[in-house]
């Protein structure tokens, strides 16, 4: 599955999930930020300014959910419902696994978030 085939709500959900995962450990690594920005290109953002706008909007959407691990996890599980096919679910997990591992440090909170997402995407 190609990421640019995702539709509006799915694109927003994937971007929001990546940002929730990035903020889960409270350690923002430049490599994670770069991965999210690359994801925006893969999702079809044609210009840097459009990508920046999408990024900023996603930060606004997730900011109220990033305060605690429980809140972030609950919201992430809700966002996972946007992905209906096995291919979509697999792609989402692959993107998130790569993002979380990109800074070479996987925290307990990131592990908990990914475990909850894997469970939600498996059903």
Helix content: over 70%
CATH class: Mainly Alpha
* Total of domains: 1
Second rung of CATH, namely the architecture = Orthogonal Bundle
Oligomer: single chain
Low-confidence stretches: none
Rounded Rg: 13 Å
Instruction: Classify the fold: give the CATH topology.
Output: TerB-like
Put simply, the count of helices is 6
Strand content: under 5%
Structural class: mainly alpha
On the 0 to 100 scale, the average pLDDT is 87
Distance between the termini: 19 Å
CATH superfamily: TerB-like
The shape, in one word, is globular
Largest sheet: none
Give a description of the structure.
With 123 residues, the chain is mostly helical. Helix content is 72%, strand content 0%. The protein contains 6 helices and no strands. It is globular and about 35 Å long. The relative contact order is 0.20.
Features:
single chain; about 120 residues; mainly alpha; TerB-like; 6 helices; globular
Short description:
The chain has helices at 8-24, 30-42, 48-62, 69-80, 86-101, 108-122.
What is this structure's SSE topology?
Blueprint: H1 8-24, H2 30-42, H3 48-62, H4 69-80, H5 86-101, H6 108-122
């Amino acid at each position: 599955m190609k990421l640019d085939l995702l539709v509006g709500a799915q694109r927003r959900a994937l971007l929001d999930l990546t940002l929730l995962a990035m903020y889960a450990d409270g350690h923002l690594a430049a490599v994670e930020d770069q991965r999210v920005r690359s994801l925006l290109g893969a999702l079809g953002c044609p210009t840097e300014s459009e990508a920046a706008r999408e990024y900023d909007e996603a930060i606004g959407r997730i900011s109220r959910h990033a305060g605690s691990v429980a809140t972030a996890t609950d919201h992430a599980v809700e966002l996972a419902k946007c992905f209906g096919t096995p291919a979509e679910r697999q792609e989402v997990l692959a993107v998130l696994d790569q993002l979380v591992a990109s800074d070479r440090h996987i925290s307990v909170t990131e592990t908990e978030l990914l475990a909850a997402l894997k469970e939600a995407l498996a059903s």
